[in-house]
Fold:
Amino acid sequence: MSAVMEISSAQDKDVKSIIQLWEKCGLTRPWNDPAQDIAFACEKQESDVLVGRIGDEIVASVMVGHDGHRGVVYYVAVSPDMQSKGLGREIMSAAENWLTDRGVWKMNLLIRQGNEKVQSFYEALGYNEEQRTCMAKKLND
Ligand SMILES: CC(C)(COP(=O)(O)OP(=O)(O)OC[C@H]1O[C@@H](n2cnc3c(N)ncnc32)[C@H](O)[C@@H]1OP(=O)(O)O)[C@@H](O)C(=O)NCCC(=O)NCCS
Structure:
């Protein structure tokens, strides 16, 4: 029988392991401070970082939240040596449940240019591409 992944909210002691997971999965960027991102999401009622553990090891993560209208996920990650075993589907299902528990009925997510291969993963989970233009502005420059 394969090991069961336990999913829970991230704790302060998990921060280092979460960042290592994101680095292994190629999700960190020099212009984003991952520790700040985790702290900011975890301190709000409208957002959280969920982690999946097998034994003591953090093998999956998702940052989930909502803006009062739509849900959103970031930092969807499964440890490279644990991919293709259904854990990505499980951690996304936990994020969807987190949102539906709070009355959110639609989730948006972004895929970075160059990472189009994960589109098939999200399609397997029932997500569809919607034609939108994403615009952004940094508010602290
Ligand atoms: C994307 C990611 C989270 C998927 O996790 P995973 O554990 O490998 O995915 P699962 O095993 O749960 O796969 C779920 C479904 O997606 C499909 N899938 C997963 N990756 C796929 C891929 N690259 N191409 C096609 N289908 C894929 C699986 O076949 C499976 O379909 P099925 O349940 O119908 O058989 C993982 O590959 C990852 O961490 N990638 C690096 C980080 C990243 O790019 N994150 C997304 C940022 S937008």
About this structure: The CA atoms of residues 8 and 50 lie 5 Å apart. The helical segments are 15-24, 34-42, 87-101, 118-124.
